[in-house]
Amino acid sequence: MSNVRGSEPNPVSARDRLERRLQFVLPVVVLAAGIAIWHLIVRINDLPPYILPGPGAVFATLIEDWSVLWQSLLVTLTTTLQGFMAAAIGGVALGLLFSRSRWLEYSLFPYAVVLQVTPVIAIAPLLLIYLPQQLAVVACAWIVAFFPVLSNTMLGLNSVDRNLAGLFRLYRASGFQTLRYLRLPAALPYILGGLRIAGGLSLIGAVVAEIAAGAAGSGSGLAYRIAESGYRLNIPRMFAALLLLSIAGIVIYALLALVSYLMLRRWHESALGKD
Amino acid sequence: MSLRGVTKVYDTGVTALGPIDLDVRRGEFVSLLGPSGCGKSTALRIVAGLMTQTSGEVGVAAQVRENSVRQPIGFVFQEPTLMPWASVRDNVGLPLRLANLSRDEAISKADQVLSQVDLAEFADAYPRELSGGMKMRVSLARALVTDPGILLMDEPFAALDEITRFRLNNDLLDLWRKLRKTVIFVTHSVFESVYLSERVVVMTPRPGRTSAEFRIEAPSSRDEDFRTSAGYAAQCRDVSAALAKTSGERPVR
Questions:
Q1: pLDDT value, residue A9
Q2: ipTM computed for the complex
Q3: What's the pLDDT tens digit per position in A57-109?
Q4: Beta-carbon separation of A161 and B81 below 8 A
Q5: How far apart are CA B141 and CA B21, in angstroms?
Q6: Closest CA in chain B for residue A161
Q7: A188–B85 CB contact, under 8 Å
Q8: DSSP secondary structure letter of residue A94
Q9: B57 exposed, middle or buried (CB, 10 Å; 0-12, 13-18, 19+)?
Q10: Closest by Cβ to A171, choosing from B71, B85, B126
Q11: Phi/psi at B228 (5° precision)
Q12: How far is CA B76 from its chain centroid?
């Protein structure tokens, strides 16, 4: 028996390595299979592109319409970024204000919740009536994205180790010092978690608002292209635009995850290895 | 440092402490020894100003020296209580930064204290990279960095393994002999209290009062020889008996 074991050094770590490789290989396999099935369905049923375009047609459209789609993507990303920045700054600032003043928290927090639970698709047409279009679209992105930042900031600021708080009192730290050296660093992992959620949400908010704006007959973002292509039965372009949106969402999430990792890797459990 | 008739009643109506009287000379090493929950930590927190007493008076004669930051008390918690996001150096320098010293001043003083506790080479490490004993020494360095007259220690070594605890006991004694701080050391270990202190104050169960005092006879340089000496064992037995009597349990044979 011992010979059998000896011939296979470190079976556990070998299995670990296999598992790690599978983690990357399996999604790619699923993707390839999905595209192949998609292609076959279109081929076998001989579907016309305005019903369901094949993957080849979508890819061709992506290249053919690249200049239009790229411009639209930039518009949508700009909106997303503006909404995200507003949500990040607004959420953290409001969280800080709430932590300073219970009064303010009691007065405003319920309305932050109301804003969060009301579907943005229902608010967007109203905002488009009362605000200039670009501002309305950014406002939608902000509404969707700011709440996770706010609630995570509040949670983080209240998650300070009690003994550390006592230590700061012992050394008579001022409110500002306690915030700068204790509460903000302690809240940082929570805030970064909120921002990671907010990144994807601000893209969703921007897209929803653009579609609402597109229904009103104007706009130039990627979501507007989707709506427009739908009216014109240019289905391949709808798919191409959708693909770009998904990729944008993935990139945004990956970037924010990277930022979070870089900021926390020296000390926070979430950024450390399993050992 | 003196306590006069100090009591603490919690909001829940539980009397946690006292009334208790305690005088500690400048430069003295006193242990508060008592069963869990007897209010000895509460007493320490009241001295530190982390809690306010319900009644009675606390007098702390601050010895403010020319070059010291105006912080008469250093406190070592039961947990290392370090900021995980800051390096060892920044953790130790924190009290100085809070006293509005420049970063450079804080760093140079922190490095100086870190070398006193043999951690100079770990100044750039982060707390998670250190062992439990090393974290506790960082915590001790931080308490010493303001050069306080009084050092309050709340069961600082209780969570450590025995070997590490013995080592830190000796390190603490070395530091105390060198720096001559007033030390008030809270512990529930008879052996630790007798080994370390000049005087052991035994406290009753809640509400904690002082029930007995022992002046510990020991050679001026306490070391592992003292730990195995007959005198040490005898004094441990006496203190243990007193503790058992106040706790209402049978003494350790």
A1: 53
A2: 0.86
A3: 999 999 999 999 999 999 999 999 999 999 999 999 999 999 888 899 899 99
A4: yes
A5: 30
A6: B81
A7: yes
A8: H
A9: exposed
A10: B71
A11: -105, 5
A12: 6
